[in-house]
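The aim of this short unit is practical: by the end, you should be able to scan a pair of folded records and say something sensible about each. We start with the first protein, listed as its amino acid sequence and then its C-alpha cells.
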Amino acid sequence: MASSIGLSDLVLWMVILHFHGNGLAGGRSIAMEEYFQMETYTKFLNRPAIKSIETTNGDIFECVDIYKQPAFDHPRLKNHTIQMRPSTYLGGTKNEVSAVKVQNIEQKNGGCPLGTVPIHRARITDILMKGSIPKFGKNDGDRFLHHYATMELKEVQSIYGTAAGLNVWKPKVQNHSQLSISQIWVTAGPDNELNTIEAGWMVYPNLNGDDEPRLFVYWTADGYKHGCYNLLCKGYVQVSPNVAPGFAIHPISTYNGTQYAIYLSIVKDMKTGNWLLLWGEDQSKLIGYWPKELFNYLEDKAEVVMWGGETYGTNSYPEMGSGHFPEEGAGRACFISKIRVFDYNRIQRNVDPAETLTHYDVPHCYRSIVDRSIDHQTYMYFGGPGGNCVTPSYPN
C-alpha cells in the first residue's frame, strides 16, 4: 500500500540527507541513530503550547502549561506542589533605588496567560547545526577551561541567600562556543559532590543563537557531573508568565555612559525549603525556584556565596563584563552593586568589604576588586579583555 509524505516531512528528510551526505561543520557526518536521539531531545523540550508570545526584542517563546514544563519529568518531583509566591518575609536591610537604570525584560502585551510559562522553542535544525545533542553545562571534563573573577565571604557560614544588582554589558565573544557570564552563586558540599545554584546574565551564542546578554539560571547537585542552564533539563521550576530564563536584556550599559542593571535574589524559603529566584529591588516577583528535593547539601542552607564573572573558551577567551579591567571603576568596568546576604539569623543585611575575599586565576585576562561607594553600599568591580588566557597563572 502506497504511503504519503507531508511537505514538512520532506523538507526535514532533505535536511537530514544534506547533513548525512555532506557532513556537519568540522567535517563530521551524522548517523540516523543520532538524528533520532536529537528528535527525542527536542520532543522533551518542546511541550504542547497554549500560544506563542513575542518578547520586547522579537524573540518567540511558547506558553506551556505550568504543570507540563520539563521540571516535572524529574523523578523526585512527581508529587511536587508548585509554589506560586514566596512564603518567607524578607526582613532586614533594603536599599534605595540608585541612579543605575533598572531593566525590564517582560514581554509585549503582558506575556503568557495565567497558568502557563514561557519556554524558548527548540528546533531540531539548530541541534543538527551543532552536530549533537547539546550539553549546556559545566562538567569535570571542561572545568579547567573556565576562568573566574569573583568575590566571596571570607568565612564559611550558614547562608540563606543573596541579592545584588548586576550591571549589564555585552562582552565580545569570538565564536559560538565562548561564554561570558555575570552571576551570583550559593553553594554547599565538597567539590566532587558540590551543590550549586547560579543566576545572572550571560552571552553564549551556542546556547542562545546570538551574542545578546540574556537572563539565565543554572544548577547542579553532583559537582558539575550533571546540570544545565535554563529549562534544558529536569529540575528548575518556572513560575512567572512574564520573566523567564533566555530573555534578552535591553538596553545595555555603555562606556562612560548610562549604566543598566538587573536585580536578582536567590533566597531560601523558610516554609517550603525551596530556593527562590526573585526579580527586582523590592524582591516582589518570583521568577521560579529550585525545589529542595533536588539537593542534599543545599537542602538546608548554603555554606558559600559568591558574586562575579566567569568565562569559557579553548584557545582564546572572550571579554568579561565590559571588557575593561576593574581598576577603571564605575561607568567603565562592570560591577555588582548593593550586595546583600541572608545570614545565619535569617536577616537580610549588607555585605561589608572587610568580610570578603576576591579571587581571579588569570590576572592578565580578568581581575576583581571590592569597594565601598559613597552611598555606603558594597560594590565589586570585575572583568577584563580576555584573549590568550591559556597560560597558567597563579591566583591572587
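Turning to the second protein, read its sequence before its C-alpha cells, just as you did above.
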Amino acid sequence: MHVFRLRGDFQTLDLYSAFLFEQGARGLEEKPGEVWAYFPERVELPLPGEWLELPDTDWLEAYKRDLKPVRAGPFVVLAPWHEWEGQEKRIVIEPGMAFGTGHHETTRMALETLAQRTEPGMRVLDLGTGSGILAIGAALLGAEALGIDIDPTVIPQAVENARYNQVEASFKQGSLDDIEGPFDLVVANLFAELHAYFAQKYRELFGVCGTLILSGILAEREPIVRSALEANRFELLSRRQEGEWVCLTYAAC
C-alpha cells in the first residue's frame, strides 16, 4: 500500500482532498499533525508531502476496525458497517470521501450546537457541506435543509449520504452568491478567515432574525471572527471550545 503524507489536518488541507481522490486516492486518514492519503500505486502529485510504503496488509479492514461511532448531542454518527442499539438519532456517513464524519472537534461541536438551536420547520443552510452531515442532522430534526459547497466532487457524496439516511436534504454546488435567503439558521464549518470575509454576506442570509453557528475556528484566530461579526451587528449567544478549536453561535436580529 502506498501512502502520501501531508503535514497539517483535514481542516487546513481540505482544498487538496478533491484533487487527491481525482488522482486515485482510496481514502484519507487524519493522524496527529498530518493527513495520510492511501493509493493503490504511486502517482505524480504536485503537493508538499512525501510517499510512504506500508506492508501489504488489509488497510481498509484496519481502518474500519479503528473507526468508532461518535456521539454528538442527540445524534450518533456511524459508518455503514457500524451496528448501534442506542436511542440516539443515527447519522450514517461514508467516511474518507469528504470532510465531515463527526470525529473532528469542529464537526462534532457544530452538530451538537445545531441540535440545540434547530426546530421543526426551520429553513437551514449548511455552508461548506462536505459529506452533508450537518444538513442531514438538521433534516433529521425536522428542518428544511440545504447544503452548499464550492467543491463539485462532494455533492454526489452528500446526496448519497442523505439518501442512505432517508432524509430530504437538498445539495448544490456553489458559493454564497448562488443562494437566496432568508434562512432561519445558518451553520458553517469553515476556517476563521473565511468567516471574517463572509461576515456581511452572512447578514444578508437572514430575514428579521436568525441564528448563525460558526465552527472550524482556531482559538488563536477567534478575535478576527468576533471583530468582523460584531461589526455586522451579530450578537454572541454562546461559545464552545474543544482543544484548540472554537464554535461560536450568534443571533442576527
